[in-house]
Amino acid sequence: MSNSLFRKKSLTKILQDAREGVADAHGSSGLKKVLNVRDLTLMGVAAVIGAGIFSTIGQAAYNGGPGVIFLFILTAVTCGFTALCYAEFASRVPVAGSAYTYSYVTFGELAAWIIGWALILEYSIGNIVVAISWSSYFNNVLEGMNIHLPAWLTTDFQTAKAQFEHVTSTGGAVDTLAWTTAPLLGSWRVIMNIPAFLIVVIITIVAYIGIRESKRSANAMVGLKIVVLLVVIAIGVFHINTDNWTPFLPNQFEGVLKGVSAVFFAYIGFDAISTTAEESANPQRDMPRAMIYSLIICTLIYVVITLVITGMVNYSEFNHVSDPLAYVFDQLNMEKVGYVISISAVVAATSVILVFQIGQPRIWMSMSRDGLLPKRFAKVHPKYQTPGFSTIVTGFIVAIPSLFVESGIVTDLTSIGTLFAFVLVCGGVLLLPKVDKSTKKFNLPYINGQFIIPVLFIIFCYFFRKKINLDVFDHEHILFMIFIVLGAVISVLTFIKRYSLIPVLGMLCCLYLMIEIPVKSWLVFFAWMGGGLIVYFLYGYWKSKLAPQRP
């Protein structure tokens, strides 16, 4: 059984299944190849520039001051390492499925299932967070138009209850209308987030109708929000007070690192491009370019926006500010500009929901082709040429919880699932067989990490030597020590086997970001993955196309 858990699918077989499997096994046509490098780049920008830049950037700036731009750059470099690894896979395996398919080639079936299950956290569960954020911005826009929805229809039960209990115990000024005005169903207060539910339903319909329509919608939304961000920069640059940039690192680099979760969440999504490989006209050439282009564009926007807003308003004012871009203009009595920004935030979040609702069904489609999920998940709609059933299921999984779930409990979970996928992608590149580079349109540069990685690891241990303490056993310290052990093992293997520098750096950087996530989220992550393993051993292991055929 141990051998069958790591059974691998060959590159040749995967490419053959992509060309023939859908039509032959499911009696439907393939996916439309309509995406070019511009479409893919804009799709990447659509996925990355969303709720993050309009919300989490404020708290990150409060912790790190203007110097938080260094964290954006470091995170971009980390994502850049991963993007190059994704690009290497995409050039060899130009099919839908993203990290799931790549892991099937390199690590085997069990690892592929685990990463496919983890990607649900990035796409579906992550989209719940974005939908809730969209609802908040949308409600603010309606308020500006003097349209007032009932408070109990714009939030979740736990948030409303927490706000009411906070006011009751402390006498604070938090709005409690959602709790006090909610209708009763017996003894239960009816509180639900209707706008979040409706936007997911609408976007799911768009994703179901077709990739061409989704492409047009995403491109239009990306264009609009980039224009708005450029307007923010153009206006804000004339209101910068350079005194606000002093000190540039008010809380030293430790303060900058406090924003790791917030900043990384702002980058989640660039890998969604890889899920549309089969709808790309020239995936081997265009997908690597699109990943890198979108990452560069987003980083430049993040850095400039951060410098502008921390120049307009002192970093110390951003504590618990959920709408920092609108906030800075409100502080300068430019409320109309702030209102336009709120509208842009709605558009930005909409584009993220769209891209993720496109990505998740295509991962399930790939898993179904391999027999790990029922055949219906791989069925392509004969008219719209999209994975129809998978798209509908994704809509239900995102829409229903968005009515009731509190966003805070799934944000860190999304980050863990994403980073976990990134680690396996970077590690998987090291296991790919060598091929003739002349046959590929993208080649990951080989830089011998034999000496560089061990030296960098020793330098890291020197600067963090105070945390390497075997007498401390709190959860955060245990995670750090696990990273040190893994880092040491990876450094030794790199020295012995002369691994390529870029994927190894990608693995180490992602592993470090993972240990910065709170321990309670790790416990939920392990429970989630445990549930996934149960599903695999009850269904996928026996139904896999690589499973031995019973007589």
From TrEMBL:
Membrane topology per record: Multi-pass membrane protein
Domain of life: Bacteria
Classification via InterPro entries: AA/rel_permease1, CAT_C
Gene Ontology molecular function, alphabetical: amino acid transmembrane transporter activity
Residue intervals of the Cationic amino acid transporter C-terminal domain: 501-544
Annotated keywords: Membrane, Transmembrane, Transmembrane helix, Transport
Chain segments annotated as transmembrane: 40-62, 68-89, 110-134, 190-210, 222-240, 260-278, 290-313, 337-359, 384-404, 416-432, 444-465, 477-496, 501-519, 525-542
Annotated compartments: Membrane
Example of a GO cellular component annotation carried by this entry: membrane
Name by which UniProt lists this protein: Amino acid permease
Organism: Chitinophaga cymbidii
